[in-house]
């Protein structure tokens, strides 16, 4: 399949060559048709005048007047059936063009032209072109009065012009293909350079394209490729880091589970305590795997997510209720700042619940004794905030808290806030954080047509 494809150079040269060839052939054809039509029409008009003189004499039942030259531009010659020339006008001085008549009659003989058939006919002999008509003499059977016009000069001019057109076509064809080659090379060169960059990018070599292109389209393509290269490099780096972190996070609980299992097997550890550790690490491992799969589902735009209008206040209240035992155990008071009317938003309920759950879990781990939850609609925006009165986030940690597997003080496996960010962004919102010695506030903002 690829072997049949042509390069830009070949295509442009073929296109330009075909265009030049087509135009010149059309011009030559039109010229030849018009020139031939003109010669035939002129000859027919001239020969008709002389022919009508002979036919008029015959209709009036009188012998033709052979003592006068033919009218019009036609020449006249008497030809026998065996193509012999008879010149009864010599005595009248009418055979001054004997050589031309002889050449014409020789052409008739060479082509075995049939005489006396009437009408105007064309004859080409060598470089000469004749139009002729003939009438048989009634008084001398087997002898014909032939009127002819020599169009050799016009015919020669026609051939010369056609030859000139052919030479011009060849020159234009060479010039056109040369220009097409130059233009195609100017286009194909940068494209080949961009193609090589794309191949290197596919091999994991992310080198920006620094070459400057004069063509706007190529320059835009270069910019798009550079932007894609940056995104791919960032994505590749994130993926490498992600798998490294996943390997580390999975290795730690597995190693603990293995150690405790071996302790139980060899009787080194107390069975109940070791089993409790194994169960705890298994739960931790299961939560990690669940979070990883959930992130993959979010990034893959899974089709099993069902969006419908939900009252965000109800989702927040349900989330807090689920944490009721933990909140009571730690003596944490929850304050609500909800508006009275429903706060409707088009969302996937389970995903939104998970985002609120992760924010609440984060607040429970860091707060001293109070958590404030807000949910309000402000014009075309919806604000959801989870505030704690903990020690706040360190300045060095703040830029990294939404990164995958980044664990701050008291964190689990570093995926909770990254999941919150992914869920909020998948719903067309953004999440912000403000912190200080008096606590931390995570704010989710939704806007758009759904915020109504």
From TrEMBL:
The keyword Oxidoreductase does not apply. This is histidine kinase. Residues 54-70 have a biased composition (Basic and acidic residues). It comes from Anaerotalea alkaliphila. Its EC number is 2.7.13.3. Residues 185-237 form the HAMP domain. It catalyses: ATP + protein L-histidine = ADP + protein N-phospho-L-histidine. Residues 245-450 form the Histidine kinase domain. Coiled coil: none annotated. GO terms for cellular component: plasma membrane. It is an enzyme of class 2 (transferase).
């Amino acid at each position: 399949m690829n072997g049949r494809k042509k390069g830009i150079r070949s295509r442009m040269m073929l296109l330009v060559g075909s265009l030049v060839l087509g135009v010149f052939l059309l011009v030559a054809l039109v010229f030849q048709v018009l020139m031939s039509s003109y010669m035939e029409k002129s000859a027919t008009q001239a020969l008709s005048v002389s022919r009508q003189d002979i036919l008029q004499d015959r209709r009036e039942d009188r012998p033709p007047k052979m003592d006068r030259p033919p009218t019009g531009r036609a020449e006249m010659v008497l030809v026998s059936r065996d193509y012999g020339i008879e010149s009864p006008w010599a005595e009248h001085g009418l055979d001054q063009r004997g050589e031309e008549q002889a050449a014409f009659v020789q052409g008739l003989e060479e082509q075995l032209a049939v005489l006396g058939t009437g009408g105007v006919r064309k004859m080409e002999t060598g470089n000469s072109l004749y139009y002729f008509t003939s009438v048989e003499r009634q008084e001398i059977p087997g002898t014909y009065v032939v009127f002819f016009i020599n169009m050799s000069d016009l015919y020669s001019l026609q051939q010369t012009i056609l030859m000139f057109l052919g030479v011009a076509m060849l020159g234009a064809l060479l010039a056109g293909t040369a220009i097409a080659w130059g233009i195609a090379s100017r286009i194909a060169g940068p494209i080949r350079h961009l193609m090589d960059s794309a191949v290197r990018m596919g091999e994991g070599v992310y080198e920006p394209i620094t070459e400057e292109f004069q063509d706007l389209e190529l320059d835009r393509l270069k910019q798009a490729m550079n932007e894609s290269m940056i995104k791919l490099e960032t994505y590749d780096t994130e993926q490498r880091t992600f798998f490294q972190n996943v390997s580390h996070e999975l290795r730690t609980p597995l190693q603990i589970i293995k150690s405790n299992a071996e302790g139980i097997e060899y009787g080194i550890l107390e069975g109940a305590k070791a089993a409790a550790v194994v169960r705890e690490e298994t739960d931790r491992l299961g939560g990690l795997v669940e979070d990883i799969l959930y992130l993959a589902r979010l990034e893959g735009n899974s089709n099993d997510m069902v969006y419908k209008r939900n009252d965000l206040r109800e989702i927040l209240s349900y989330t807090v209720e689920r944490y009721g035992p933990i909140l009571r155990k730690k003596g944490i008071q929850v304050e609500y700042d909800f508006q009275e009317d429903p706060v409707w938003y088009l969302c996937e309920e389970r995903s939104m619940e998970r985002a609120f759950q992760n924010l609440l879990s984060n607040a429970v781990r860091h707060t001293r004794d109070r958590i404030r939850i807000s949910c309000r609609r402000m014009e075309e925006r919806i604000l959801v905030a989870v505030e704690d009165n903990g020690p706040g986030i360190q300045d060095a940690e703040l830029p990294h808290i939404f990164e995958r597997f980044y664990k701050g003080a008291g964190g689990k496996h570093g995926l909770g806030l990254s999941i919150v960010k992914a869920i909020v962004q998948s719903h067309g919102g953004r999440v912000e954080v403000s912190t200080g010695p008096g606590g931390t506030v995570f704010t989710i903002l939704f806007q758009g047509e759904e915020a109504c």
